[in-house]
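Data availability (excerpt). The following record was deposited with the supplementary files.
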Amino acid sequence: MADSDVRMGAVLEGYAKFLRERDLALPKHQPYLVRWVHEFLLYAQGHGGYTFEQTLDMFLAEIGKRGDLKPWQIQQAADAVRIYRYQYREAKDDGQGGGPPAGLNDHVAILVRLRQVIRLIAL
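Predicted structure:
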């Protein structure tokens, strides 16, 4: 097993433990959140040079092209990755618009954001 695979496994195991300890998702949903983060991290490795939010938007558009995912699954992926980035890693805004969108907890802002993602998928 390559060193990067070991590091990835440790990161994902730590994230899974974080979800369990903080009770951030139902136990039956936690493996899906970990899987989304794993897919995102693999995607991000090949798409450097962008802010976190830009990379996330591109990732969401890419998984949306699959055709077998429902909108709630795309939102679940976005939520999982943001929990990883902003809570698990306790990352700060990178000064390039990479912070969480203003009003993330506001339902209207969430719907606007989802609409943007759906438009990207339709392209």
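Summary of structural features: Residues 3-122 form one domain.
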